[in-house]
Amino acid sequence: MSRNKFVNPKHFELPGKFCRLPSEYGVVKICVSGAAETGHCGLDAFDKAREVGREIARQGAIITTGATTGFPLYAAGGAKDESGFSIGFSPASTEREHVETYRLPLDYSDVMVYTGFGYAGRDLLLVRSSDAIVIGCGRIGTLNEFAVAFEDRRPMGILEGSWDTDELLKHFIASAHRPNDRLIFDSDPKSLVEKLIEMVMKIKKENSLVYNNHDGWGGSGKKDEVIL
Fold it and tell me: Model-level pTM?
């Protein structure tokens, strides 16, 4: 006999507010990156992930994830607890491949983007579709998303916790010998999300060139100031 699954009624409510970027560039989108398998993360990983998601929704931002299990899934669930809006980026090319081949969930995603590019390609699209990144307890996939965001100079919040991911990242950042003033370390999800959104709003207001991909080239490859 199947049991009825309780679903939080807020998961079906429309978001109460959206945090709009300056000059009508849309709504702030915050990616949550973390381990799909969290056995090594410690007892507080799920609680921290859920609170990150809740705070993203409370601040009126959209949460983006890799449409996977573990830390990102709990963050997306936390966002839905506060009637937030969630976008998942799948490594699969179809819903069936997502569920049957990759064995990934559909839960908590209002919109699912089927990239068809596998995990590495999915990571690139996920990061570049987001205004800021929260890095939680993670493994190699999380480090890949961190590297993409670091190269793109995306605002990043590294969540400190009982895991060692934040300490590893401090070592990588020091070893990179590349100054980056868009990194925030904090153990409090509320404070971390607030600081990230504040940074995103400031950056977008001061320098929001649509074509700027931080590779040193403009839309035509000539360091343009405008696109015609």
Answer: 0.84
Mean pLDDT, residues 73-77: 96
pLDDT over threshold 90, residue 223: no
Q: Which of 223, 158, 147, 220 is nearest to 187 (CA)?
A: 158
110 neighbors 87 (Cβ within 8 angstroms): yes
DSSP characters over 17-82: ---BPGGG--B-EEEEE--SS-TTS-TTHHHHHHHHHHHHHHTTPEEEE-S-SHHHHHHHHHHHHT
Residue ranges covered by each domain of the chain: 27-206
CATH number of 27-206: 3.40.50.450
User: CB–CB of 157/135 below 8 Å?
Assistant: yes
pLDDT for 17 beyond 70 = yes
Query: pLDDT band at 10, cuts 50/70/90?
Result: confident
The whole-angstrom separation of Cα 119 and Cα 130 is 17
